[in-house]
Structures are given as structure tokens and as C-alpha cells.
Amino acid sequence: MSALGGGDDVPPSVPALRRPPSVPTLNRGRLDAIERDVSREFLLELVNLFVTDVAVRLERLSDAVKARQTKRASSLAHALQGSAASLGVLKLRSVAQRLEELTETDDWGASDATLARLIHEFQHVCQVLKAIGSEPPVERAAK
Amino acid sequence: MTLQSSTQDPSLGLLPTAGDVVAVVEDDPTTRLLTKSWLEGAGYTVKEYDSERSVREEHGPAPTVACVDLGLGEQSGFDVMSYLRERDPELPTIVVTAEREVETAVAAMRAGAYDYLTKPVDRDRLLHSVRRACERRRLIDRVKNLQSELGTGPLTGNVVGASSAMVELSRQVERVIESDVAVCLLGESGTGKELVARAIHRGGPRRAGPFIALNCAAIPASLQESELFGHERGAFTGAIQNRLGCFERARGGTLLLDEVGEMSASTQAVLLRTLQERTVRRVGGNQEIPVDVRIVCATHRDLRSEVDAGRFREDLYFRLVVYPIRLPPLRERVEDIPLLVVHFLEKLRARAPHGVRGLSAEALDALARHAWPGNVRELENVIHRSVLACRHDEIALADLPPDLRSLPVAPADATPRESGEDLLGDEDEVVPLRELEQRAIRKALRLTRGSVGRAAKLLGIGRATLYRRLAELDLAPDAVGRIVA
Fold it and tell me: What average pLDDT score do residues A10-35 get?
């Protein structure tokens, strides 16, 4: 499978300043390894679980940022980046990590902007992950 | 940790065994599902928990190993860790932390975690860590089982071992413990003669009395009588006051005469009289003082040979050696090495805290190959040195003293001929079968540095058979050390 990148098309309302360094959207190697180690069906189940779970987490995170709840916001951002790391969703992880740092220092202006970027990145990731289901299966290593 | 070679005990093998249960405590469902899938794929049974609360609500059997995410939302993974360890102090816990939280991982290790993994967790690293943790768990359980099996015998405490030789020793001690029969402990230096003597004292009816040990080899011949029987003031130059001897100090208790074979001829004569009369007369004194003492003697020498050589009184020999008990050298019970290692690590930890939890499989194999001329005492010293050298939580081969590291591994398929020694002699020479057998045994022991188990394997016979053949061929067990030296 070819490595997928992209996701850099940020909406104009989001400031470009203090953006996390450019990283690929996905670590395809990790996703492929999961598929190889377990199965395509499992990978898709995992992806579905991730999308559903992150959608809920993002809502909670948005509420916490809007309410300027430092501890809750940074904790939710931290959890979200851990979840993204597990699946190899690199860019989402990177933005969540940035948001965690910003909320920890009560930099709410930048936090609002980064939250918007996080939501945008999540929407992009959903599209990319959705496409996996229609790709040919990964070749399994001979046992 | 693998403390024992898997060739000796399949229960300590490298693959997951049926019944290995891994508790995964992780609040992130994606990570939890992934971890579960990897572990189940490797043959483990997984119990999932998404919070500290769900862990506390579990009342089923304890898992073999736990994987705990330290960043459990707003709860602390440390709380879960301490709760789990409270329930099961021996539970190996693998903690999972974010990449940037190395300090947290270090704190968790200090708090007793077995290992740590950083997110995103790597599958191979996870399975490797869990496998090792399960091995460690099985070893701890095995040691505990063996200890509890031994716990009912007389040799509890510092006399450690579960081998057949030690079980037999325990039986023999049990036979003499309640009586006052004169016991003679025969064994090489470092086999634990004094510990067994103490066990005999502790387990017998004289346990409330004193236990006095005198090492006859450490006392100059001129002072032996004074040490044993005491002296009166002015009895000799320097005797400025009356002094009680060991017999009087041991009154009502047990007197261990260690290295009794080193006793001078004149002291032997006085000792014999004392045992016959059950009274002592202090040096320079003229009063007979009754003493009621149980005598246990110990020696590394063959006392019978000493009698034959005229160096030890035969009448005293019969007085002292009513019930001889042989203490096996360590090379005859290498299967006890894991138990002894755990025992010494715990003993050292009680004296000075250290972070060493065990021994690698390679290090253990090296210990099993060594001939241990200094026996258990030598092993204790090696473990002490290795703990000081060890910079991790497991003693590695590199932490062992150099002479143990370099012991050659006997190839499993080696035969005496392949290794270059012509057992059959010259072409015209016919070597008697008995001699041939002796040569083969000597060679196998030399190749394996005295490891009877490995030598037996090379020879294609059982361990017990090799011991029997050693005896039949007049290669007494204590000669093994010389063969391999």
C-alpha cells in the first residue's frame, strides 16, 4: 500500500502561527502491521471504534476548552493523543499534544484555534480511514 | 525472569502456559482492544478494565500479570498499581506511559513495577515483556510451593533446598531431632553444617537452652582444652580469672564441635573422658562439674580414615559418630540453585535494599555449570558480588564473576570421542570395560565442569545412574571436584 499523507489544507480561519510541525496523517506501517498481525476485519473494527470514541472525546474536549477548564481540557487532550498514537494517527496526535500544552498554560486564545484545527484534522482523518476499507488487503508474511 | 533452565523444568518454558491471565487496565478503548487482540493472539487470556473502579469491583482470581496505563484519565494508574499489589504482592505489573513521561515510568519502576512500555505500544515489546513477567510469576509461585512443601520439615529457615538430596537430609534430621543421640555432620566446607546443627538444636527438646559452636580448626591446640572445658585462675600464664568453657556455657543446650577432626590428641583424650563421665574438669581445677549437653560434631574430613591413619581416637569416634548425616555438596543438587538465589537475594535485600529481582537464563546456566568447590557459601558470595555489579533488575551473565562467565557449555550432542580423547587407548591395547567406563565418566565430568546432570546427559544415562556408577567405580562424590579441577 502506498503511504498516505496530506491533511495540511487548514481552513483560513485557523491561524498558521504556532502550528505543530508537519507530520503525515497516518503511520500506514502501523496500520498495515495490525492488519497483518490480526486481520483486515479487526483493523476495520478498531478504526470504527477509534472514530466513534474520538468523536465523543472531541465533544467533551470542546466543552472543556469553552469552559476554560484547564485540568479537564489538558487531560482530555492527553487521552486523545494517546488514542491517536495507538492507531498511528500521527497528525491528530500531534495537534492534540499541542492542545494539551496550550491548555496546561491557560493559553486559551491559541487553544481555541488549535481545537478548531484538531476538529478539522479529525474530519480529514475520518475520510482517510474510511478509504482503507476499499483498499486491497495487506499481504500476510509467510508463516 | 528465567531462573531455571527450561530443559530442567518445562513449567518455566518460554511460551504462554494455559491459564496465564493478563489484566489490561486501560481507559482508551482503541488501545485496550488492540492490546487485548495482540495478547489473545499470543495465547493469553485477557481481562479488561477501563477504570480503577472496575478493577476494584473485580473479585475473581488474581491475574498472572497486569498491564496498567498510568494515565488513566483523571485517576492515577499508581493507585491501581498499588491496589493490585496490595491484593497480590507478587503480581508483576507492566506500566504503560506516554512517550514524554519517562519520569513517571521511572517512578513506577521505583514503586515496584516490573517493566514499562511507552505509547504507542509496540506489539513485540509488549509480548516480550508479558512473557518474561509470566515466567517470573511462575518462578515465584514455584519457589513458594517448594518453600511451603519444605515448611513443615525441620530444616526450615536458612537451610534452603527442595532437591531429593535435601529432602533426604531433612528426613535424617527429623529422625534424630527429638533424641540426644550423638550426630556427626559430614560435608564439605560451605555445605551448611552449622545451619543444620542449629536446626537440630532449634527443633529438639533443648531449644530453650543455649547453642554454642566451637570451630576446633580455629583454636590453637594449646588453647583447645581451655576453650572446651574452661580454666581456673592461675592455671597458666595469662589465666587471670576463672573462665567457663564451651561445655559449661552450653549446659542444657547443644554444643557443636565443628571441624572435630582438627582436634589435638590430648584434647581428644579429655573430650572422651568428659563424654564418658558427663562431667568437666576445668584446666587447673580439681572439681568435677556435671554437664548436661547434647553434642553435635561436624567435619569435612573422612573421620574413619583419620582413625585408620591413627590421627583420631577410635573410642572417641564411636562416641561422636553414632548417627552420621552427610550434607550434599552443591554440585549434587544444582536444581536447588534457583531457590538458593532467591533466598540470597531476599537475604541481601534485608541487609541493604537493592533493585535486583532475579537472574537471567544465561546467568543461571552459568551457575549450573560451575563445580562450586566452596558450595553454598561460594554461591552466596557470587550472588552478593553480582548484585553489586548489576545495574539492572536482573543479574545478567556479564554481572557474574569472570571465572563463571567463561565456563564452556558442553555441546548437547558431544561424545567423548568427538572431543578428542581416545578412550580406547592404543590399537594393540585392550582397555578393561571398567576402566573405559571410568574414563568416559571422568571425561564427561571434566567437559561439564563437574555438573553431574549435564555429564549424565552426555553419557546418555540418568543422573541417579551416574551417581551409582560413581560410587561403584570408587569415584566417590567428593572426588568429583578433583576430577573436574
Answer: 72
Please give the angle made by the CA atoms of B86, B120 and A111, to the nearest 5 degrees.
Answer: 100
Closest CA in chain A for residue B27: A79
**Cβ neighbours of A82 in B, within 8 Å:** 28, 31, 69, 71, 98, 119
**What's the pLDDT score for residue A87?**
93
Tell me whether residue B12 is exposed, middle or buried, using C-beta atoms within 10 angstroms of its C-beta: 0 to 12, 13 to 18, 19 or more. Answer: buried
Residue with cell 479488561: B48
Q: Which residues of chain A are within 8 Å of residue B29 when distances are taken between CB atoms?
A: 49, 53
Phi/psi at B65 (5° precision): -145, 150
Assigned CATH topology for domain B10-139: Rossmann fold (3.40.50)
Q: Which of A49, A75, A82 faces B74 most closely, judged by CB atoms?
A: A75
Domains annotated on chain A, with CATH: 28-131 (1.20.120.160)
Residues from A contacting B (CB-CB < 8 Å) are 30, 33-34, 37-38, 42, 45-46, 49-50, 53, 71-72, 75, 78-79, 81-83, 85-88
Nearest-by-Cβ selection for B37 from A42, A71, A78: A42
**Which positions in chain A touch B38 (Cβ < 8 Å)?**
37-38
Q: Residue B141: count other Cβ atoms within 10 Å of its Cβ.
A: 13
Report, at the CATH architecture level, how domain B164-328 is classified: 3-Layer(aba) Sandwich (3.40)
Q: Is B235 left (phi over 0), alpha (psi -120 to 50) or beta?
A: alpha
- Picking from B28, B120, B121, the nearest residue to A79 by CB comes out as B28
Q: Name the residue with cell 552420621.
A: B324
Task: Determine contact: B29 vs chain A, CB below 8 A.
Answer: yes
Put simply, whether B28 touches A (Cβ < 8 Å) is yes
Q: How far apart are CA B98 and CA B113, in angstroms?
A: 16
Residue A9 has pLDDT above 60, yes or no: no
Taking chain B (485 residues) in runs of 10, the rounded mean pLDDT of each run is 31 53 93 94 91 84 89 75 83 85 80 87 93 84 63 59 81 85 90 89 86 89 87 78 85 91 92 91 86 92 90 92 91 84 83 77 84 89 89 85 70 42 57 74 73 75 74 57 31
Contact (CB<8Å) B30/A46:
yes
Residues in chain A with CB shorter than 8 Å from the CB of B98 are: 78, 81-82, 85
pLDDT at B424: 59
Q: How far is B18 from chain A (nearest CA, A)?
A: 21
Options 3.30.70.660, 3.40.640.10, 2.60.40.1640, 1.10.8.60; CATH of B332-405: 1.10.8.60
Where along chain B do the CATH 3.40.50.2300 domains lie?
10-139
| pLDDT value of residue B286 | 84
What is the rounded distance in angstroms from the CA atom of residue B311 to the CA atom of residue A75?
A: 82
Tens of pLDDT, residues B91-146: 899 999 876 777 788 888 888 888 889 888 999 999 999 998 988 887 777 776 66
CA distance A53 to chain B (A): 8
Residue A7: predicted pLDDT? 42
Let me know the angle formed at the C-alpha of B274 by B271 and B278, rounded to the nearest 5 degrees: 150
